[in-house]
Amino acid sequence: MTDADKSFLKSTWYSPRLGCEATLARWGTFGQPVLVFPTAGGDAEEIERFLMIKALAPLIEAGRIKIYSPDSVAGRIWFNREGSPEHRMNMQHRFHEWIRHEVVPAIYTDCKTTDIPIWTTGASIGAFHSVAALCRSPDVFHRALPMSGTFNIMRFIEADEPTEMFRWVSPLYVVPKLQGKHLELLRTRHVQIVTGEGRWENLGESWQLARVLGAKGVPNYVDSWGPDWHHDWVTWREMLPKYLDEWTR
Question: Which structural domain, as residue segments, surrounds residue 227?
Fold first, then answer.
């Protein structure tokens, strides 16, 4: 058992925003807080089962990062096709409300602070959530590292048009409408868009996001690892430690 395993803690509580119980897991005792969104409908402990925590263990044990991961409640509802398409889209909004108003305060409490910057990351659909959280709440989230992102998720929803709630969640819809102090603050943040070009990867998704962010002056950079890197945990276990190591030096 590593020190990262020993520092594991999880909390589960009922959220009126979600209408159900949800879990937040943590690995680490000190360091920069990093919120890792699961893939698709994954749970809070997915990153441990897929050996991401093992890959991050040197950084966790050195006290450079603390890893947090929430249940992907919206993703579960979405991929199980629970309720109507409108309900599933609106749950994306409620999920991000839960992140901002319940998960963030829980991280602050755990870090014994009220204003520490939080970084976000995630792979695939988790990449979408990592960017959406930053764009929606740049007051608390300062950097995003989306990996192998799927950003145009309307194509997976059985509806012709997004709901107003979903428009506020998706960076592709909300960023072009941002202005004023919200946009000014977002322009001081950074999105590092990382992807491969191998099996099941779509470089075009990353460039689409980059164009939307760039058009509003939001700092971002697309970093492709090339055709030998596939849409898979093997890739993400290489990517995430690399960038977090660089960012915490």
Answer: 3-247
Those residues with Cβ within 8 angstroms of residue 116's Cβ, 6 or more apart along the chain or in another chain:
33, 107, 108
pLDDT in tens, the chain (249 residues): 566 667 899 999 999 999 999 999 999 999 999 999 999 889 999 999 999 999 999 999 999 999 999 999 887 777 777 888 888 888 899 999 999 999 999 999 999 998 899 999 999 999 999 999 999 999 999 999 999 999 998 877 778 888 888 899 999 999 999 999 999 999 999 999 999 999 999 999 999 999 999 999 999 999 999 999 999 999 999 999 999 999 999
Structural domain count, the chain: 1
Sort 192 into a burial class: Cβ within 10 Å, 0-12 / 13-18 / 19+: buried
Reported as half-sphere exposure (CB side, CA atoms, 13 A), residue 216 has a value of 27
The residue type found at 121 is T
pTM surpassing 0.90? yes
| 3-class SS of residue 161 | coil
**Distance linking the first and last C-alpha atoms of the chain:** 26
C-alpha 221/C-alpha 183 separation (Å) is 18
| Gap between the Cα atoms of 91 and 75, Å rounded | 9
The CATH number of whichever domain residue 70 belongs to comes to 3.40.50.1820
113 burial (CB, 10 Å; 0-12 / 13-18 / 19+) is exposed
The span from the CA of 26 to the CA of 18, in Å, is 20
Which tokens sit at 145?
């590292």
